[in-house]
Amino acid sequence: MLRALLILAISLFPAFALAQGLQVGFGNMKQDSALPVEVEAESLSVNQNDGSAVFTGNVKIVQGEMRMNADKVNVHYQSDAAGISRLVAEGNVLLVQGTDIAEAQKAEYNIDDGSVHMTGNVMVVQEVTTVTADEMIVNLNDNTAQMRGQVKTILRNE
């Protein structure tokens, strides 16, 4: 009887997740958004008029324990040019925080509030769980994430 209830609960979980969005943890350590951001790429284009820089080709970004890779990243600087305000990554985006891995087609990292908004075929892999969705919003300050839109979970027995 208990096994039947467990199977029913697991089978209903994806439907509930689809309707409500899914709250998951992301990363196993607190990210410090005050740490320096290191960017490496094949090319760089700077626009002094709007205070942005576009890195293209095998872009790699590191901030503390967080890593992000993408085909292209647009870096937006703060209005006083004292630092970076946000990063917009496009194409084959990969975000790694601790042992958690997320991939998507686009990600916007807001340095000031420590949030990452990922869209387009989002997939998160965490040890024995894989979650897919249309979008994910990660709060790097408390290592949580909210998944929305066609959420699907795969729970492996290992």
Description:
By secondary structure, the protein is mostly beta strands. It has a single domain, classed as Sandwich (lipopolysaccharide transport protein A fold). 12% of the residues lie in helices and 59% in strands. The protein is built from 1 helix and 11 strands, in the order H-E-E-E-E-E-E-E-E-E-E-E. Strands 1, 2, 3, 4, 5, 6, 7, 8, 9, 10 and 11 form an 11-stranded antiparallel β-sheet that branches. A hairpin with a 4-residue loop joins strand 3 and strand 4. The N terminus is likely disordered.
Keywords for this entry:
lipopolysaccharide transport protein A fold; mainly beta; disordered N terminus; 158 residues; eleven-stranded antiparallel sheet
SSE series? HEEEEEEEEEEE
Alpha-beta classification: mainly beta
Task: Tell me, briefly, the overall form.
Answer: globular
**What is the CATH architecture assignment?**
Sandwich
C-alpha Rg (nearest Å): 17 Å
In this structure, how is the largest beta sheet organized? Answer: 11 strands, antiparallel
Give the % helix: 10-25%
Unreliable segments of 5+ consecutive residues: 1-20
| Structural domain count | 1
Distance between the termini: 23 Å
Q: Superfamily at the CATH H level?
A: Lipopolysaccharide (LPS) transport protein A like domain
Give the amount of beta strand, in percent: over 45%
DSSP, total strands: 11
Total DSSP helices: 1
- Kindly provide the name of the CATH class: Mainly Beta
Would you tell me the overall average pLDDT?
A: 79
- CATH topology-level name: lipopolysaccharide transport protein A fold
